[in-house]
Amino acid sequence: MHRFLKRRLDRMRLKDNAYSYLFDPSPEDEVVSIDCETTGLNTKTDDIVSVAAIKIRGNRILTSEAFQATVKPKAHMAADSIKIHQILRSDVAQERRIETVLPDLLKFIGSRPLVGYWIDFDAKMLNKNVQQLLGITLPNARIDVSDLYYDRKYSKAPPGTKVDLRFAEILADLNLPPLKAHNAFDDALSTAQMYVVLKDLKARGVFLKRVRSWDTPLPPVG
Amino acid sequence: MPQAFDAQNPPFDRLTHAEINELRSTIDIGYWGPGEVIVARGEASPFLHVVIKGSVEERDGDEVEHVLRAKDSFDARALVHGAAGSTFLAAEETLCYLLPKDIIVRLIKRNTGFAAFFYSELSRKLTDYAEQHDDNTGGVNRVLRARVKETRLHDAVFIDAGATITQAAQMMEERHNNTLFVNDGTRTGIITGTNLARSAVLLAMPLDTKVRDVAHFEIFSTNADDFIFEALIKMTRHRVRRLAVVSQGAYIGTLEDVDILGLVAGNSQLIPGRIDRARTIEDLELPARDIQHQVERLHRQKVQVEVIAEITSDLNRALFAKVFDLIAPPSIKEAGCLMVMGSEGRGEQTVRTDQDNGLLLASPVPQTDLDRFRDEFTSALQRFGFPPCPGNIMVRNPVWSQTIDGFIRQIKSWVMTPDEYSAMYLGVFFDAVAVTGRGELVDQAKAAMSNMMQGESAYLARFAKAIDQFEDASAGVLSAIMATVGVGSDVIHIKKSGTFPLVHGVRVMAIEKGVSATSTAERLNQLAQLGALSQDLTDEMHSALNYFMEVRLKSQIEAMRTGRHEEEAIVRLGELSATERDLLRDALKVVKRFKEILRTRYHLGML
Asked: Chain B interface, mutation test: which of A60, A61, A206, most B Cβ atoms within 10 Å?
């Protein structure tokens, strides 16, 4: 009920009616996988440096019509994060500001549910800017692949099972090819692949095998 | 846009950087759960699929023909010919890159390296298909001997010469046809999409330019009743990629090279034309070398060894026939029959290891003619890179080039009063195939041989005894394999332990049962039908033979590379993977079983 009300309120608060499509029903069986690379992990002080979004229609990942943009951040690009995403200050000097990228991105994702890994973080990063532009936060539904993975892997696990939801671990467990990590497009693509596989496992009621403690090899003796 | 799409994965390694980028920008990714059909047999596919993860079964009915894994692609046939030859089904959770048909076809037309790879894959499937559905003729030959009208032609669409470039482009778009015939009074021309693009973009001609001013009025055409290879020769000769097709004086369509390339392997389709056009022995040198080069190329392209052998023997026979045609004097052409024997006759030779050939004459010819022919023929073949036969089974040897009467007497002495080589000579001859000239002579000599041996268990047994020529190589090796798994420095002679006992044993049974086929596969097939061997065993023997040929071809190609020709039939166990060793062991077990059957059948233990 809370979500429903917030949605109604947001619809009324929307500053620019050109964006009312965000509240339309989502196209059938479509979602958007999205990933942002940022200057750091603090959603208050850090900014987006690149963003990629890939539509998924049914079981097809539409890489041919993906959205990709590099952004010139307001926040200072910390040396630590440059090491991770390898986007240099000089790379973004000529790029567009998030204010001009955002309308295109919103148009691309429309009212489709957003799929991501730790999607709340990406949504928060985007919402800082969406708030300024539209006076609301993104009304799109959110799907976190780590939740889907948890559901297929650990929902029936006995208490005390060690839970591992790291991105690389999910990728390896689902047998997906490793891509160049920390590149917005490749991360969004990996996420999309996780999504279609996990969605199918769920539809077929299949659970992923857990390594039980007695499956791990005994330490060598002597 | 996925950068992860592997541009180094053949055939995509043949695309330019720009082409790869163009391709990447169009790729989507599809997902299928276990048991879902990806492409159904007989259906067209809008995509070429490249497996990212998972596995895909290629099925013919309920039978799984291949299992495709990461980086494998399918299905060329569904793409180009609009109908998949098999059903493709996800065996587990499977992700595939989806490469749109349009761009693949565009790249095939533009990039011949890409096209060649792509089509040899296609041709492998087509050949498989042809073999399954047409027992009498070889796949490749069948395609080359097909008529132009039997291929899928592009319709003939006509436009008036007074129409504009824009109108022509619209018409191409509407009719899905890249080539238009141009009516200009009494003359007819042709205009293609490339012509239009060149005029409008490169030459900046106005869009209302008349078609008349950009069309070609020199049309290269082929008749609808022509053979495919004739059309190919025309394309090569005139360096064009399409021909107008004429039937009863009217243009009925166009034929493009990609349509034909789709039907034949690699570049082998061009070799017969070049052999055909040769006027001198020198002219044949290049195509002769190309036959050999393409063995390696086809192998690299993962064409089945059986198919490689078939293509190669078709081409070699065409080559021999041409050599005969060029150097035989009229007397020999009149009376003679050129034959190939041994592995060449069975159609099981890939890399040239020797030459087994001979000449039978219906009646005596002048000695000077014969001497000159013997010498010239054998040296021509040597010049083309056929090593001389170690057993001297060559036209040059008078024993193997004589009158039919003399030769039948020779056979009789081999059968009745054998020495240590007789069984080998008889065996090699029993595989003979007439290449050109009076083919009935070969049949006659073979019939004589069969008559002498059939029902004569002593002769048959002596002939069969040769399977033990390299006694117990396989038994010894079997235990050696067991002992050396993982470490082995052991070597195995594939021909002695594998191919020879199998081929020779089948040969003996073929004589006994009056089977006239020459290829081991076909002999097995007929022996099974006659009930002489069980279907299961013949299937296993067939697979074992293919496996030996495959392994041998690999080591032969390696030997060509290193120049260590004495090692061409040697396989080092240590260099095999665990799976390959398993397969080898299984194949050798089949040989062992078969040898035991032969020993009992012909009472070899008593000899």
From this structure: A61
Contacts of A177 (CB under 8 A, 6+ apart): B4, B52, B53, B70
Q: Are A177 and B2 an interchain contact pair (Cβ–Cβ within 8 Å)?
A: no
> In angstroms, how far apart are the furthest CA atoms of chain A?
74
Of B4, B31, B98, nearest to A177 by CB-CB distance is B4
Is B417:B409 a contact under the CB 8 Å cutoff?
no
User: How large is the ipTM?
Assistant: 0.82
Judged by DSSP in three states, A88 sits in coil
- For residue A195, give the chain B residue with the closest CA: B31
Q: Which amino acid, A55?
A: K
For residue B139, the number of C-alpha atoms closer than 13 Å in the C-beta half-sphere is 25
- The candidate with the shortest Cα–Cα distance to B175, out of B253, B242, B101, is B253
> A-contacting residues of B 82-141, CB under 8 Å?
93, 95, 98
Within 8 A of A201 by CB-CB distance, chain B residues are 93
Q: Is residue A215 part of a domain?
A: no
- Can you tell me the distance from the alpha carbon of B30 to that of B96, in angstroms, rounded to the nearest whole number? 5
Q: How far is A2 from chain B (nearest CA, A)?
A: 36
Q: Which of A42-56, B63-77, B156-170 bottoms out in mean pLDDT, i.e. has the lowest? A: B63-77
Is A214 part of a structural domain of the chain? Answer: no
CATH code for the domain in which residue A197 is found: 3.30.420.10
User: Of B94, B95, B109, B103, nearest to B25 (Cα)?
Assistant: B103
Across chain A, how many H-helices and E-strands are there?
8, 6
Catalogue the E-assigned strands of chain A. 30-38, 48-57, 60-61, 67-70, 114-116, 142-144
Among candidates B537, B552, B343, which has minimal Cα distance to B431? Answer: B343
Residue whose entry in the numeric block shows the structure tokens 């009076």: B438
Contact B29/A63, CB-based, under 8 Å? yes
Q: Token digits for A36?
A: 């942002």
Do the domain assignments include residue A102? yes
- Give helix B520-529 / helix B535-562 axis angle, nearest 10°: 170
Vertex B359: Cα angle to B289 and B393 (nearest 5): 70
Q: Is residue B383 within 8 Å of residue B345, measured between CB atoms?
A: no
Which pLDDT does position A97 carry in this prediction?
86
Q: Which residues contact B325 (CB under 8 A, 6 or more apart)?
A: B333, B436
Predicted TM-score (pTM) of the model is 0.46
Alpha carbon of B309: minimum distance to chain A alpha carbons (Å): 38
B294-309 pLDDT per residue, tens? 787 677 656 678 778 8
The CA distance from A58 to the nearest CA of chain B, in Å, is: 9
A167 falls within a domain: yes
Angle between helices B457-464 and B440-453 (to 10 degrees): 110
Distance from CA of A111 to the nearest CA of B (A): 22
- Asked if the model's pLDDT at residue A199 lies above 90, the reply is yes
Q: Looking at the 3D structure of chain A, how many domains does it have?
A: 1
The token pair at A140 is 């799109």
Q: Which two tokens stand for residue B21?
A: 């980028």
Cα separation of A95 and A51, whole Å?
Answer: 12
**Which chain B residue has the Cα nearest residue A196?**
B31
Domain range for A99 is 2-209
Q: Would you tell me the crossing angle of helices B500-513 and B457-464 to the nearest 10 degrees?
A: 170
Listing DSSP states for B213-256 in one string gives GT-B----EEETTSBHHHHHHHHHHHT-SEEEEEETTEEEEEEE
- β-pairing verdict for A114-116 and A30-38: parallel
pLDDT in tens, B75-133: 877 776 677 778 899 988 899 999 998 898 888 877 766 776 665 554 454 444 444 44
Both tokens assigned to B581: 């060793």
